[in-house]
Amino acid sequence: MNRVMSSRQLLKRLLPIARRMLGAGSGVGTLIEAAKIAYVQAATEKLFPLGGRINISRLSVATGLTRKQISAHLRAGEAQRCPSLRNEQRTARVIRGWQNDRRFRNGSGNPADLPMRGRRRSFELLVKIYGGDVTPVSVRRELERIKAVRVNRSGELRLRLRPSCQTLTIASRDAGMSRSEPHTLAEIVRDVALAD
Fold first, then answer.
1. By C-alpha distance, which of 40, 38, 78 is closest to 56?
2. Is 86 exposed, middle or buried (0-12, 13-18, 19+ CB in 10 A)?
3. Contact yes or no for 146/91 (Cβ under 8 A)
4. pTM confidence score
């Protein structure tokens, strides 16, 4: 008899993953994408255990994903790559913009110290462009909490981080995962779904 996991049970299993992801700077889009990949993998293993030709329509019915999404996941496989900007946590997008957008860099090419408000080269504009629908104050507080910015003597915000490409594997390891644990988010989500 199949046992359906309740929302409460699922939440209990997802909470530790969400904590690790937040600690690693990953946004919820990364988890959602990994859940889709895990669903496709689990359905493929269950419906086509001997391999052979995979029926995309059958996978779509089993997972609730569209045939287009199934096809994309099967083509991509479980490629380990840096999360897309769409899936990054908002603070990570703001930091990436600060590091890479020349409008927010100084004459030496480093991230410029930014005034909080202003129409040109300000933290407010940076957040508007890279943060989405959040306020500059909320992003500033989060960046201060994680010690990514500090206020200089002029009252401007100074970025403390250096540029880096944070892959999911590195982020997961930095968030406290041991070598014996799954290294991709898809593996983690799959293990959570299979656990009882």
1. 40
2. exposed
3. yes
4. 0.47
What angle is formed at CA 45 by the lines to CA 44 and CA 49, rounded to 5 degrees? 110
Q: What is the pLDDT of residue 174?
A: 38
Mean pLDDT by 10 residues, the chain (196 residues): 70 88 84 85 79 80 88 63 50 87 89 92 91 88 88 93 38 37 50 49
* CA atoms of 168 and 181, how far apart (whole Å): 13
User: Residues, the chain, total?
Assistant: 196
The β-bridge partners of 88 are 26
Side chain identity at residue 124, one-letter code: E
Note whether 139 and 127 are within 8 A (CB).
Answer: yes
Q: What is the pLDDT of residue 8?
A: 85
